[in-house]
Fold each of these.
Amino acid sequence: MTNNTADGQTTTSRAKPDIWNYRGPVIFSPLCSWPPKPLSALRAIGTRWVTLSRNTLFLLFAVLVYSYLLPDMNSMKTLSLDWILPVFLRNLFLLIVVAGGLHLYLFTFRGQGDKLKFDPKAQMETGHRYSFNNQLYDNIFWSLASGVTLWTAYEVMYFWGVANGVIPTLGFSDHPFLFAIWLLATPLVLSGHFYVVHRILHWPPLYKSVHSLHHRNTHIGPWSGMSMHPVEHIFYLSSVLIHFVIPSHPVIALVHMYTRALAPAFSHAGFEKVLVDDKKLIEAADFHHQLHHRFFECNYGNVDIPWDRWFGSYHDGSDEATLQMRQRRKRV
Ligand SMILES: [Zn+2]
Ligand SMILES: [Zn+2]
């Protein structure tokens, strides 16, 4: 039996076959460590906002879109396909580039082989449980047809409200400090919203009728992230409504939307990091959510805030945690 370790080395053991090709550590952000770890927290913030990360990537996308690709404010005062269609096509393009790019590199061209891949399966699956009997087509269909449409609907509502002065905004030059606070707080707001919404989606009637579509994917890839039922997209993307009531900058609202709509391509990539020539290019999936797709009733949140540890649904990837989770399930 061979296993890849964190640094990509191969070890040999006589243990029973592992269900994982690679077990990543589940590490919560030090932002909420107790007792506090201020230096580690500062380092984590620096890694997130100063190095190449999905956060800096989405901030760049948001600044570029806001500066060069935003329809004219006057035209956005009325709902018209003249500007809504370009917004839809731009969002379609962004998701295809991010999820499609990751899929091509990691699964089609196998750019890093199996290195840091959690699940031993090499390719997406086929079978009756998927639309079109094909996991990849299924995932692309739900991501684009439902995901991009509902993401665009929220974006259109937001900019229609901004253009008409119904939604309050803050200028960057007048409020640079608030802009920075918003930027730093956005991942935490998203983490809390995701935990609450995700727990609601695991309420059995909603799980069966809605969330099970996302959970068709036990072996996940970049396109699985936004592969959701339309009702789940409405719930999941509703965190952006915070910008409808609390004044922020449109760039912050766009960063928020990209974090919702594009980050799942990374978090479901199936590989812990994207490697180029064995060197980390960017962080990708976390083992925490991979475990949720494998075991369902654990790890409902993400690693930005340790909700699962606080509420007793934490799985650290060990066999002992699997046993404990099964015993908990039996008791329930
Ligand atoms: Zn998921
Ligand atoms: Zn779930």
Note: The longest strand covers residues 279-283.
Amino acid sequence: MVEIKTADELNKKFLREGMWPTIFCNGCGHGVVLEYTFWALEELGWDMDNVIFASGIGCSSRLPGYINADGLHTTHGRAIAFATGIKAANPDFNVIVFTGDGDCSGIGGNHFIHAARRNIDITVIMINNFIYGMTGGQLAPTAPLGSIATTAPYGNIEHPFDISNLACALGANYVARWGVSHPYQPIKSLKEGLQKKGFSLLEFLAPCPTAYGRRNKLGDIKKHWAWYDNNTILKEDYEKIMKYGTEEEKAQVKDKMQLGVFQDIQKSGFFESYEKLVNRLKEKETKTKGAKK
Ligand SMILES: Cc1ncc(C[n+]2csc(CCOP(=O)(O)OP(=O)(O)O)c2C)c(N)n1
Ligand code: SF4
């Protein structure tokens, strides 16, 4: 049941007003991801007393601090490890991680890999701005080839991670990638990911005009935001063009970043399997005790 109609009403309900103003620069995409998350939570009608946020360090990792709900602002790269602990101790809680591409795929890469592999029942919202924003623009593992960073002044020579692809390969139950300029599909997808049992990844491609846009000469904020629209394509459209398009059409979309839902499966998760194992051992113990009497 949706009670809220306007963004103002939404913000009044979900934002922790005492934390304002935010640290975000003009044109930063992080606030949009936060608002999409609020709409998804509102539409789901979840009791916010049963929702806990966790984050690491970075501009994106500041988001839980602005939410009127319990949250843990932890150490760089470790949010998923903390979130796993929260979920293990409170299985009925919905645990949501906000993380950056540096936090999640750089220093926290191994936590990410193993949480996805174990299909830990949490939702990870990773905001990918291709850079370490908070510390002034060092190269992130997601930075496109050739892009400029303080630590790559002559252009990135490393191949970037495709984090959504990696999560699919690891067997995460729900994986999607979206941008920040069209709300309908991302909000719908956030609702799906949040409700999904097992590991969900929602990757958002979001502009960082200060550390990435300026350095990579993407123009003013308006042009930077338009760059994302011009360089992304819906997965379904990409597939159609690759199957039926002309060579020219294929060449036009070949290097675009795909958006959409990449995986939606029902693999059993770690906590479910662990509970089954404990019950199996308990039964065995009861039987053994019964046999001894
Ligand atoms: C152990 C440790 N190493 C390095 C840092 C410095 N540090 C703080 S934020 C950050 C990068 C964050 O980048 P990202 O996760 O992409 O988030 P963004 O700021 O771009 O949203 C780094 C390297 C730190 N705080 N702790
Ligand atoms: S540095 Fe980049 S990521 Fe950080 S608040 Fe500014 S625009 Fe956003």
Note: The pocket of thiamine diphosphate (ligand 1) is lined by residues 57-60, 76, 100-103, 127, 129, 131-135, 140, 208 (CB under 6 Å).
